[in-house]
């Protein structure tokens, strides 16, 4: 593969940033990788794992002369970071992000992007519950969707180049309006996480003896929820702080549906319950057929 971006700077290099840097090294799509994080511990890990050629805690130094800047920090930090790096971006450079929320990131970042620099927001729909540079791996994006949300009037060549980068990392590409992205993700990702955090919270509030049994006998079901609820608390705090409208909308619908399920259980309406569960099974089948289920998990559960 030929070089797409000579110098690439990662602002934040945890699970997503380090998976990208590993994949870009593997693919030869860049010449020099610069990694920037806050904590000395993170920077040491990046050095030890040789994830970057240049390692720094200085945002300005990191983006100097970079052809591509990837902001890969919790979404609540993106505006402040853009404000610091904005004046130091190279003309013609591309700035992208990987945040799980898009419209709030556009609002926070775009005002700080100078004329002549291309800001192309992005979101890889790939991840695990693990965090930090040690948890990344280059295959993370393979067969997964990455959604780009270019702004009106975005430079087509810059969008195409970034799309090529993602495709080279194995991702499938889609473009979307940022508000639409946030609505889709509210139902497919944000609400399920909220439910997982709530269920695990409910179980941990139970009396001590019962809680012990919940842990001891956790069958899949509860166990699957605990995996989701092990995701990074700061990242998820920022997601809910920055996608409030869309989350509240789907939460309202979900609450109504849950009340309906409660009614069916109370009435003992077996047929109606079975109908709902049958629909659930068909949706699962669709996800497996679209190859969007975790392969190991799909083998176990179908
Ligand atoms: P992560 O593993 O926790 O890494 C976060 C990185 O951001 C670390 O390098 C951290 O540096 C840095 N950082 C944290 N707070 C910061 C702050 N206030 N200022 C500057 N840097 C800060 O996170 P991740 O899972 O890679 O997630 C990064 C982004 O990707 C998030 O926006 C998230 O929404 C998005 N995303 C995540 C997933 C997923 O499943 N995890 C999937 C798709 C998209 P230090 O270690 O030095 O603190």
Q: Give the total of beta strands.
A: 9
CATH class of the largest domain: Alpha Beta
What low-confidence regions span 5 or more consecutive residues with pLDDT below 50? none
- Which radius of gyration do the C-alpha atoms yield? 21 Å
- The string of secondary-structure elements, in order, is EHEHEHEHEHEEEHEHHHHHHH
Q: Bin the strand percentage.
A: 5-15%
Account of the protein in words:
- The structure is a single chain.
- The chain has 302 residues and is of the alpha/beta class.
- It has two domains: 5-176, NAD(P)-binding Rossmann-like Domain (Rossmann fold), CATH 3.40.50; 180-268, 6-phosphogluconate dehydrogenase C-terminal like domain (6-phosphogluconate dehydrogenase C-terminal fold), CATH 1.10.3660.10.
- 53% of the residues lie in helices and 13% in strands.
- It has 13 helices and nine strands.
- The chain has helices at residues 15-27, 40-48, 59-63, 78-85, 103-109, 156-168, 178-205, 208-216, 222-228, 233-242, 244-267, 270-289, 295-301, and strands spanning 5-11, 30-36, 54-56, 68-71, 94-97, 118-120, 122-124, 145-148, 172-175.
- The strands form two sheets. A six-stranded parallel beta sheet has the order 3-2-1-4-5-6.
- Helix 7 (178-205) crosses helix 9 (222-228).
- The model has no long low-confidence stretch (mean pLDDT 94).
- Bound molecules: NADP nicotinamide-adenine-dinucleotide phosphate.
């Amino acid at each position: 593969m030929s070089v797409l971006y000579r110098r690439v700077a990662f602002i934040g290099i945890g699970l997503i940033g380090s998976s990208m840097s590993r994949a870009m090294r593997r693919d030869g799509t860049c010449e020099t990788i610069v990694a920037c994080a806050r904590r000395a511990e993170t920077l040491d890990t990046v050095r030890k794992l040789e994830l970057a050629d240049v390692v720094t805690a200085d945002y300005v130094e990191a983006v100097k002369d970079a052809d591509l800047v990837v902001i890969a920090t919790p979404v609540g930090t993106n505006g402040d970071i853009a404000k610091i790096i904005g004046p130091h971006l190279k003309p013609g450079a591309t700035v992208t992000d990987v945040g799980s929320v898009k419209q709030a990131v556009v609002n926070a970042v775009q005002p700080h992007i100078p004329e002549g620099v291309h800001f192309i927001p992005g979101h890889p729909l790939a991840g695990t519950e693990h965090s930090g540079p040690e948890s990344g791996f280059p295959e993370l994006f393979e067969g997964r969707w990455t959604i780009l949300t270019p702004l009106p009037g975005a430079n087509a060549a810059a969008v195409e180049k970034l799309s090529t980068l993602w495709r080279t990392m194995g991702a499938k590409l889609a473009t979307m309006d940022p508000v639409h992205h946030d609505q889709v993700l509210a139902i497919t990702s944000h609400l399920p996480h909220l439910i997982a955090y709530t269920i695990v919270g409910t179980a941990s509030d139970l009396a001590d003896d019962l809680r012990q049994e919940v842990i001891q006998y956790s069958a899949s079901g509860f166990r699957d929820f605990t995996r989701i609820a092990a995701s990074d608390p700061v990242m998820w705090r920022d997601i809910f702080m920055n996608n409030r409208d869309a989350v509240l909308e789907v939460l309202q619908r979900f609450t109504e549906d849950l009340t309906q399920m409660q009614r069916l259980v109370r009435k003992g309406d077996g047929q109606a319950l079975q109908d709902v569960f049958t629909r659930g099974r068909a949706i699962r089948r669709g996800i497996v057929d679209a190859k969007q289920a975790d392969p190991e998990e799909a083998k176990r559960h179908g």
